Amino acid sequence: MKNLSDCRVLLVDDTKTNLDILVEGLKADHKLSLAMNGEMALQIAARTPPDLVLLDIMMPGMDGYEVCRRLREMPETADVPIMFLSSLEEVRNKTRGFEAGANDYLTKPFEMLEVKARVRSLLKAKAYSDAVKEQIASELKVAREIQMGMLPHDFSMVEQTYGVEFGAVLEPAREVGGDLYGVCAAARDRLVIFLGDVSGKGIPASMFMVRAISLARLLARDIAEPEIILARLNDELAVDNPSCMFVTFICAVFDPASGNLTIANGGHCRPVLLRPGEAPAWAVKNLGTALGFEEGLDFERTEITLRPGDAIVFYTDGVSEAFNPEDECYGDDRLIADTALLAGQSAPLLTGELLKKVHAFANGAPQSDDIAILSLKIGSFSGREGAL
Amino acid sequence: MPLDIQIVRTAGSDQTGVYTVKLTGSLDTLTAPDLEKELTPVMARCGKDLMFDLAGLKFISSAGLRVFSMVRKQLKERGGMASFISLQPQITEVFAIIKALPGVGMFTSEAEFDSYIAARQRIVQNGQNGQV
Fold this sequence. Notes:
Largest interface: A-B, 19 and 17 residues
Largest sheet of chain B: 5 strands, mixed
Mean pLDDT of chain A: 93
CATH class of chain B: Alpha Beta
CATH class of the largest domain in chain A: Alpha Beta
Structural class of chain B: alpha/beta
CATH architecture of the largest domain in chain A: 4-Layer Sandwich
Helix content of chain A: 25-40%
Shape of chain B: globular
CATH architecture of chain B: 2-Layer Sandwich
Strand order of the largest sheet of chain A: 2-1-3-4-5
Oligomer: heterodimer
Order of helices and strands of chain A: EHEHEHEHEHHEEEHHEEEEEEHHHE
Strand content of chain B: 25-35%
Number of strands of chain A: 15
Number of helices of chain A: 11
Radius of gyration of chain B: 15 Å
CATH superfamily of the largest domain in chain A: PPM-type phosphatase domain
Low-confidence stretches of chain A: 381-388
Helix content of chain B: 40-55%
Number of helices of chain B: 4
Strand order of the largest sheet of chain B: 1-2-3-4-5
Strand content of chain A: 15-25%
Mean pLDDT of chain B: 87
């Protein structure tokens, strides 16, 4: 936790005498910055963010209320404690001060002992809050690394073995998230691909994601039919699930010799099928029910035959439901139109370029959901002899 | 977009009433905890069934759907169901991933819901009278 003597206090008052009294009282205990008007205070706060601001209200130009509001809008000072020191002693002035974002209000004339006590109290609270935030940030960083480590990154072995090409990306909206994907080389004739999206965001979603991806990997090794993988995964997730978390999950099993791709969908966005010379199409017809709600569900099976050059794009709704600053949704129509433009590209390029198009559409609007894209493209040959 | 939650007791007493929950706005990560909190006392008093009027609901995220799935699970355990009426097209689309679950009823209007309940009561009464 930060030592109180290392904390910087910004003193803002247009009367030099007042500043002198405050400097005299506080200089032995804290680092100090001084400003004699609102504009100067904002400049100093932006350049050297303080740990606390003592702010006069009645000043020429920008008054203390406005300075307080602007400090709250600046990321550097949004959480910094602000205490008004003012001769305005009516309740309505104090109320206005708190509404502008202040943490404390002391009327002039003040006792220096009381100022010092309040300054220490506010700085201690700030230091504690900063320490907690740092600890959470540090733990989330590690959690993110663990979560990202659960996703496949190097597809080269699988690509060589099965004659396919992959492109993948995952961008959580927060430090950790609920999107997941996986590729499992289960047998010579069986490459299992899955992608999912857990309800909600953040830590709860990430913990359910870890549960789902771990189970999916285990089930994918032993079960040949994607609809059975989904049914078993659903049964596992539905028990001991008091918070009713759920995951939309799509699973596909590829046989490189025949080119058959068998898909089962548990409530997930429909993947886009791109065939050379054809318009993009949905690879499956129905959404199906998401996993985790209820044991004993059945899932539909769809079979398609992939030929060299065909590609299939799996994605989460962070793509199709990306919003721009005008609150418009990216939507299925744009997704189909954009993937049509990217047809014929390699799987990594297809993935990366689609992500760029979604970002370009969002045009700087905050990312509202986790984003995952996994593209599979069939190479010019099918599985090699002696694979696995 | 905020979420407005109106809970209306349409019949019965405070202890065992029939309730309709009217939602207007957006049910998302930010507003779902509010709905969850508001529903706690309602779930204690609503008996087997609860109806959600979603005519004013413009957006629902998976966090919102999770709250409905909790209600569905609890009501199903009591032998009842969570019913949803007047869904806008974009909400119907999201409901596709839960509509097949037992304990979920989707109706275009209150009248359709009432007909369903009346038919269900007739089946129960006929069953009690030994008829099928």
